[in-house]
Amino acid sequence: MKPYEPVARLAPVPGQRIKNAMTCDVEDYFQVSAFAPYIDRASWPARECRVEANIERILALYERHGVKATFFTLGWIAERYPQMVKQIVAAGHELASHGYGHLRASDQTQAEFSNDIRSAKALLEDIGGQAVLGYRAPSFSIGHANLWALEALHDAGYRYSSSIYPIAHDHYGMPDAPRFAFYPHGPDGLLEVPVTTVNMFGRNLPAGGGGYFRLLPYALSRWMMQKVNREDGQPALFYFHPWELDPGQPRPEGLDAKSRFRHYVNIERMEGRLERLARDFAWDRMDRIFLDKK
């Protein structure tokens, strides 16, 4: 892999904690990529949507702890719940793009991808009334085979992406990618900000949220993020989904054991763990942490 240009380590400020990036991928339970073999995309409009109520709980949690965050939002969701999007923006959070219909970047042609990211950006900006600078590919689906997507994002007016996960995973991952924010095509191009990992035993281990955060003991997740702040001098990037706070969500029939485990493990504990996470670290939006820090 070519040596991409990294962003400089943060200089520690005496008496201040490093601010970490809190992010939420705004999609509903039936849009999860692992459920695609079981839930027909054509059935989405008829399914019970629970995203509004879950976002309200998340916004209330952030308000309690003074957390500002970035919401990577599907255009499909924003189109149907514009008031929810406006509520996110009104609370001082960053609105970013998760594409329109939760299609993996790796499953699209270059023309299809370009159309998706441009239409989602325009839709979100129209509803939210603010510039959309960031993008996260569904299922972290940018890797060696489609790095052209990063140039397409830059051409579409995005300033940063959070779409490459430097781990080995059966659904995604680019283990040899840099662990921290880097410029794939130089400092005048797009900034890529990977989800947080720690390097142990010669490999990158996930430390930035998702199902791993629900599976692992909270103390271990906290230790890994503290290690990144303390030893690497870098902000951690955490992500989760609104459906992860919703034990009462409808459960599709016929799921294979792996998908069922990954989706539902410790889901009833997630909100409590987020409360602890909000207290234990300093948090802010992606744009305020990573942009213009050359």
Automatic annotation (TrEMBL):
<dbReference type="GO" id="GO:0016810">
    <property type="term" value="F:hydrolase activity, acting on carbon-nitrogen (but not peptide) bonds"/>
</dbReference>
<dbReference type="InterPro" id="IPR022560">
    <property type="entry name" value="DUF3473"/>
</dbReference>
<dbReference type="GO" id="GO:0005975">
    <property type="term" value="P:carbohydrate metabolic process"/>
</dbReference>
<dbReference type="InterPro" id="IPR002509">
    <property type="entry name" value="NODB_dom"/>
</dbReference>
<protein>
    <submittedName>
        <fullName>DUF3473 domain-containing protein</fullName>
    </submittedName>
</protein>
<dbReference type="Pfam" id="PF11959">
    <property type="entry name" value="DUF3473"/>
</dbReference>
<dbReference type="InterPro" id="IPR011330">
    <property type="entry name" value="Glyco_hydro/deAcase_b/a-brl"/>
</dbReference>
<dbReference type="Pfam" id="PF01522">
    <property type="entry name" value="Polysacc_deac_1"/>
</dbReference>
<dbReference type="InterPro" id="IPR014344">
    <property type="entry name" value="XrtA_polysacc_deacetyl"/>
</dbReference>
<feature type="domain" description="NodB homology">
    <location>
        <begin position="41"/>
        <end position="294"/>
    </location>
</feature>
<dbReference type="InterPro" id="IPR045235">
    <property type="entry name" value="PuuE_HpPgdA-like"/>
</dbReference>
